[in-house]
Design a protein that fits this description.
Elements (H helix, E strand, L loop, with lengths): L17 E2 L2 E5 L5 E4 L2 E5 L5 E6 L2 E7 L5 E8 L6 E10 L2 E7 L3 E7 L7 E6 L6 E7 L5 E5 L5 E7 L5 E5 L16 E2 L6 E2 L4 E3 L4 E2 L32 E5 L4 E5 L2 H12 L7 E5 L4 H15 L17 H7 L2 H20 L4
Antiparallel strand pairs: 1-2, 2-3, 3-4, 4-5, 5-6, 6-7, 7-8, 8-9, 9-10, 10-11, 11-12, 12-13, 13-14, 14-15, 16-17, 17-18, 18-19, 20-21, 20-22
Helix pairs in contact: 2-3, 2-4
């Protein structure tokens, strides 16, 4: 987290009371409800549904898989005509297209080997079609966009934790470029980044609601990653891991940063790990099921050697039990792959 106050002190449940000049408020579920002049409302699934800010309010809609499919901003007390609306189309858990009111459709193309790194976007149809090329840093975060003739149409100064300090255009014309850290979409009506399963506040480098997988992902339920140059989290939660210091063993779910936090908490730091492994399977459900199979393999919930709680089972158990035989075979194969990587490892 990007804390600006060295005397901040202890914070209950990692709920920051504010960041910079912004004051924060939370509901009983740990979801941010007040920020700047904004009031945030959430549904029972932990999804942001409405933000009220001054004389406007923005509504958000989601599909059955939890992906955001639309957002619309209205003037308060002025009827039901949207001032602006954007509809979204997804390819799995990756943004494929958006239709921005009065701007039309935009299709995003990504790197074949880095699935959340944009390489181009396409607007218009037929003779009016235009291709825009993205220039990214090592993490896949856009830094510049150029037209087909090489003209710079957008440049950002995106800091390490995703905050954009400047929008620059040689032509002086506005260019719609909402992509930020991998998997994140900038909402100009709030200043937050939509991160699929959660929303992210770039000014303080953390999510504004708790990790939906709870403490299984680590002890800081709001953390993005301690080093965004080497760790990315395009879904807001990702990866499965296992580690040991020779005495205590643990299996968990979350990005690499969560694994290292878990090492700090359970074995006194990563330097004490004599074996560890982390893998991202590119599908959150697969990750949960792999975690479940590893926990079953090692009897992690009941073994005195494991720090996993007997009271908490992996959410992957229900998914695995409901999966078809082909999916179960794939999960078992991936679990064995992660276990082999773990057994072959030699510490941090």
């Amino acid at each position: 987290n990007l804390l600006d106050n060295e005397g901040q002190g202890a914070v209950m449940s990692n709920r920051l009371p504010g960041c910079g000049r912004d004051r924060y408020g939370y509901n009983e579920w740990g979801e941010l409800t007040t920020r700047r002049d904004q009031q945030l409302e959430w549904n029972a699934q932990g999804q942001l549904t409405r933000v009220i800010s001054g004389n406007t309010e923005t509504h958000y809609g989601y599909d059955a898989l939890g992906r955001r499919t639309r957002k619309a901003t209205y003037g308060r007390h002025t009827g039901h005509t949207a001032r602006s609306r954007t509809d979204f189309v997804w390819e799995g858990f990756r943004l494929l297209q958006e239709n921005v009111q009065q701007q039309g459709w935009r299709t995003y193309l990504y790197d074949a080997e880095q699935p959340y790194t944009p390489v181009a976007s396409v607007t218009g149809r037929g003779e009016s079609r235009q291709v825009w090329y993205y220039h990214t840093d090592v993490t896949g975060t856009p830094q510049e966009v150029t037209a087909a003739d090489g003209t710079l149409v957008w440049a950002g100064y995106i800091r390490g934790f995703g905050e954009n300090a400047a929008d620059i255009s040689n032509s002086g014309a506005y260019f719609h470029q909402p992509l930020r850290l991998p998997g994140q979409y900038f909402d100009d009506e709030t200043g937050l980044h939509y991160n699929l399963f959660r929303y992210y506040a770039p000014e303080c480098g953390r999510f504004v609601s708790q990790d939906p997988i709870g403490l299984v992902g680590g002890i800081n339920l709001y953390q993005y990653g301690s080093n965004p140059l080497s760790w990315i989290d395009p879904w807001g939660l990702t990866g499965t891991y296992i580690f040991t210091d020779g005495t205590t063993y643990y299996i968990g779910k979350g990005p690499e940063s969560r694994m290292y936090d878990s090492m700090d908490y359970r074995i006194g730091g990563r330097a004490n790990a004599i074996q560890f492994a982390h893998m991202d399977f590119g599908d959150d459900k697969l990750g949960f099921m792999v975690e479940h199979r590893l926990m079953e393999k090692y009897n992690a919930r009941y073994s005195p050697d494991f720090a996993n709680s007997e009271r908490i089972s992996s959410p992957g158990k229900r998914l695995y039990d409901a999966a078809d035989a082909k999916t179960q075979r794939k999960v078992n194969r991936l679990a064995n792959k992660l276990d082999s990587k773990y057994r072959a490892s030699k510490g941090c």
